[in-house]
Amino acid sequence: MPADDPEKLSWLDRLTPLWICLAMAAGVGLGATVPGLSASLDALSWSGVSIPIAVGLIWMMYPPLARVRYEDLPRLASNRRIMGVSLVQNWILGPFLMFALAWIFLPDLPEYRTGLILVGLARCIAMVLVWNAMAKGHTEYAALLVGLNSIFQMFLYSVLAWFFVTLLSGWVGGFTASQVVPISVLEVARTVLVYLGVPVALGFATRAILVRRKGRAWYETKFIERLAPTAMVGLLFTVVVMFALRGGDILRLPWDVVRIAIPLVLYFLLMFSVSFSVSKRLGFSYEETTTLAFTAASNNFELAIATTIGVFGIASGQAFAAVIGPLIEVPVLVNLTRVALRRRRGFPATPAAVREVPGGAAK
Fold first, then answer.
1. Domains of the chain
2. What is the model's pTM?
């Protein structure tokens, strides 16, 4: 049996769904029982960026980004098939699917519907690195596709928000369904810089300095093996903070949470399943297929939350729907990592499925 089969995963990885559930329960409990906790966490922000969530996400993303072989990225970027498939999945399929699901399940709740549409437009640049690492996807392609999404996000998010929320929603639901969403390119760029730029810089600097001083073998077999598990701590910290921020709202509006959760769950499952199946049919390796699937199924909730709060206000239905997004994404995506690992056996053990490293050696 291959060493990377789910049965051979560490006890920490095997129990990840349990840790996530406990972190969610702890966050909801803290938010509902500790007076003023949610307000205090909300106050810890800088220029619209939540400092506690930023700390958790950077902490969570740093280990997988420190693992990336940055010297391989130019060669991998020349694979136009993977780049093209990812762009279609992220910037055509994903936004249209979320738009359709939002209108199908929330036709009578325009604020929640708009919030979900904005979540669908925000392609993931953070947590996907953790899901990809847990599912044994391709580390370098994950970093490359996240970077590509970041660039497209800065220039397309405001345009797509106008197209889907203002124009297309007006066509579907009439004039009253159309909303104007003024989004600054600089605001999007700031979000990308904080949530992606900082951990990328840390990961790149760590690898460059330690590989030069201690050698690649020590770095990848000693340092990374010790650093990698700390990403789980960052993830659990982030989950606790997110649920603590909105624990009171979840308990106060449970039916609204269910209404929002249904299209979100369907979105994550459909995006993952379609991307995984299509990528496998196109002949991509397990590592490449997994990376494409998780990149397509994840969303940049930090950007969606910042946008809805900035445009509609923190007490708006749009912001509430955006906040529910990651609360549903985390448990669904962490379980999809297990689905991906089980489907690994269906891929042929061919050279295409073997990860290449510099010098022609295979890992």
1. 50-230+255-345 (1.20.1530.20)
2. 0.79
